[in-house]
Design brief:
The protein is an alpha+beta fold. About 40% of the residues lie in helices and about 20% in strands.
Length: about 190
């Protein structure tokens, strides 16, 4: 259905730079699909990193699961710390589903769990990927509040209506930064992962 929705959007003349998705949608089929679109769009989504991860990514002529790749890159000391975002991160260029991709692994505390992002845009740096993906969370909050607080649970919006009524996310981005700083501060105080 996600691929059908994207096809419908493109046929309707809607252009976008990124398809943002959570780990539920990240799979070989959707990566290949987005990579093959003629409008030069990219995929940016979460991946499942869990210890029992079975999905393989090609890196340096070897196939790795996400946890194995993190361990491999940790040994090579490629991990960096961002004071701005207060997190550790690793960047890796991989091949997934026959498509060149860039992966970002993120960890909030020194011993916390890793989470991951994957994108078909191999020129994207970590900070820009983080900023772009944060927009998805802002939209999730808007949808949840619209359904719950405004009683729009049964509302179905068409792409053209959403496009006309969409607002700039600059305010949402600022709010998101404040929320993230608060969560990070609380997590650091109590030794939790956010």
């Amino acid at each position: 259905l996600a691929m059908d929705m994207v096809r419908t959007a493109i046929k309707s003349g809607i252009r976008f730079q990124y398809l943002l998705a959570d780990s539920w949608f990240t799979c070989k089929e959707i990566i290949r699909f987005i990579h093959s679109r003629h409008i030069k769009c990219h995929y940016l989504g979460c991946i499942k990193v869990g210890e029992k991860g079975k999905t393989k990514y090609s890196f340096g002529r070897k196939d790795f699961t996400a946890p194995a790749l993190i361990n491999h890159l940790n040994k090579k000391e490629t991990k960096k710390y961002s004071r701005k975002l207060r997190c550790w991160y690793i960047t890796a260029d991989v091949t997934f589903a026959g498509v060149s991709c860039r992966m970002f692994f993120i960890r909030r505390s020194k011993h916390g769990a890793w989470s991951g992002l994957i994108t078909t845009n191999t020129r994207l740096d970590f900070f820009e990927a983080y900023r772009i993906y944060a927009q998805r969370w802002s939209l999730e909050v808007v949808f949840k509040e619209s359904k719950g607080l405004l009683g729009m649970g049964k509302c179905q919006a068409r792409f053209r209506e959403v496009e006309k009524d969409s607002l700039e996310l600059t305010i949402a981005e600022r709010i998101w930064e404040i929320v993230m700083e608060t969560v990070i501060t609380i997590a650091n105080l109590f030794g939790f992962t956010d």
